[in-house]
Recover the amino acids of this structure.
């Protein structure tokens, strides 16, 4: 027969495999592997630790399993071209591990992890420690900064367009004497709190600062920023359309809202810039009418709350 190493592994017969097992010091398994299960060279290369542990082989000695598997891996590494030609995947641990059910149990003890170097879960990226354990590697996401820049430009444009629409809507505020505020069972029954609106804006500022802190410390800050900009810009764009096509009365008598004419287009643009630079908040001295029923404050508070709570 000659030594097994003098013949290509793919041409090994069970007798060659038996001789190789004897040379590697596994005489006790010659009868099981070669005589009973007729293991040849090709099937030897495709052997995995799962095969050794599970039926029909079911080797019981852990040390023998580990030593035999190391010898097989050494043989696999020496015959990478044969494995590739046979279409058997090899990841440096064991071939065909991705095609085997790795959820087997050790010594019949269910729920206990098997001390194996070939039990990395399928379909995930894992890194092996020197002790044979695995830790999951988090898949790195491409920040794609160009998308973040594009979404930022988009939301700035939408905010500017919103400010201009607010100027147009302000000029179309219905006369409160003809179109009084809509009745409200709850708000008409409780006293008005003068500082409530300012408090809502203060809450928005606090949420914005918390969001900036989360964004600064988050590893995927670029992705989160472009998601916020994209959603915020789209919601405000829809709000612009709704405000423009619908004229509603002001929400309360305490709001002294009357239609104001800002003159020519240049005056309208100046007013829009003032609204945009002040973020449309009364805390910055900006007061508008006609958009209270389409509250931008509600949009911002809701959006910031969702992003802060979901992204922490």
């Amino acid at each position: 027969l000659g030594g097994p190493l003098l013949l290509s592994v793919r041409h090994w017969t069970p007798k060659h495999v038996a001789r190789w097992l004897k040379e590697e010091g596994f005489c006790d398994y010659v009868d099981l592997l070669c005589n009973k299960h007729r293991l040849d060279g090709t099937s030897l290369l495709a052997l995995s630790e799962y095969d050794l542990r599970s039926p029909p082989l079911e080797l019981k000695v852990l040390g023998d399993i580990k030593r035999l598997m190391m010898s097989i891996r050494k043989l696999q590494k020496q015959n990478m071209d044969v494995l590739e030609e046979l279409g058997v995947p090899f990841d440096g641990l064991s071939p065909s591990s991705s095609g085997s059910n790795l959820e087997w149990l050790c010594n019949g003890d269910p729920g206990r992890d098997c001390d194996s170097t070939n039990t990395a879960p399928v379909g995930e990226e894992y890194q092996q420690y020197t002790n044979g354990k695995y830790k999951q590697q988090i898949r790195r996401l491409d920040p794609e900064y160009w998308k973040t820049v594009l979404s930022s430009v988009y939301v700035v444009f939408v905010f500017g367009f919103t400010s201009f629409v607010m100027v147009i809507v302000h000029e179309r505020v219905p006369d409160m004497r003809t179109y009084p505020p809509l009745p409200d069972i709850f708000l008409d029954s409780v006293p008005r709190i003068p500082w409530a609106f300012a408090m809502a804006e203060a809450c928005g500022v606090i949420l914005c600062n918390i969001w900036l802190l989360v964004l600064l410390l988050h590893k995927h800050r670029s992705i989160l920023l472009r998601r916020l900009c994209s959603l915020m810009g789209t919601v405000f764009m829809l709000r612009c359309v709704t405000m423009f096509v619908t004229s509603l009365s002001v929400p309360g008598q305490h709001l002294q809202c009357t239609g104001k004419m800002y003159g020519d287009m240049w005056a309208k643009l100046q007013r829009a810039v003032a609204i945009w630079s002040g973020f449309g908040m009364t805390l910055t001295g900006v007061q508008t009418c006609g958009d209270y029923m389409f509250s931008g404050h509600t949009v911002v508070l809701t959006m910031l709350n969702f992003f802060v709570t979901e992204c922490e």
Q: What stands out?
A: The chain is about 50% helix and 0% strand.
